[in-house]
Specification:
This protein is mainly β. Helix content is about 0%, strand content about 55%.
């Protein structure tokens, strides 16, 4: 497969996803690597290199001139901005949000921990198992646990909100 596209697998898998912003609107492109090349929603990639892409839809081929500068991709006269593959999870959450640092399984929650519990900065609140290692998730600040979304045995994605701690006013 073409190393710029990434993600070739021998087994059928989830489609690869790339996200772009065009004229202020977000667009998502889902594609799969097949035996005949890349395919995205009925569009087949016939050819792709650093400056030209040839796509085929219903047997009709179209050629696009492509140039990339940093996170900007120019396709003919259209400019796309590439969005990060893994959005920074800290930007979308309130202060005190405890987010899963990686995909994993909640193995346990601290004893007697429930919304309303007082917690100390650095206190272990729950444990996540990922890649055969246990990771301690600790209170980011001294305050009150206002939400607990994690339960033992639960599978979580990277960036999932596990709990919230509201800082104690000084």
């Amino acid at each position: 497969g073409d190393p710029r596209f990434g993600g070739w697998r021998n087994l059928p898998s989830q489609p690869q996803v790339k996200r772009y912003v065009m004229a202020g609107e977000e667009h998502e492109v889902r594609y799969r690597h097949t035996r005949t090349g890349l395919e995205a929603d009925g569009v087949r990639v016939v050819h792709a290199d650093g400056c030209r892409v040839v796509l085929e839809v219903d047997g009709v081929r179209r050629t696009f001139e492509v140039a990339r500068y940093g996170d900007r991709v120019h396709v003919d006269a259209t400019t796309l901005t590439v969005l990060p593959r893994f959005p920074d999870p800290t930007t979308a959450h309130a202060p005190g949000s405890l987010l899963a640092p990686m995909p994993g399984t909640v193995v346990r929650v601290a004893e007697n921990l429930e919304p309303g519990s007082a917690v100390e900065a650095g206190q272990p609140l729950l444990w996540l198992e990922a890649m055969k290692m246990e990771h301690r998730i600790t209170a980011p600040t001294t305050g009150t646990l206002t939400a607990l979304h994690a339960v033992p045995g639960q599978q979580v994605e990277m960036g999932a909100l596990l709990a919230m701690v509201e800082e104690q006013p000084r």
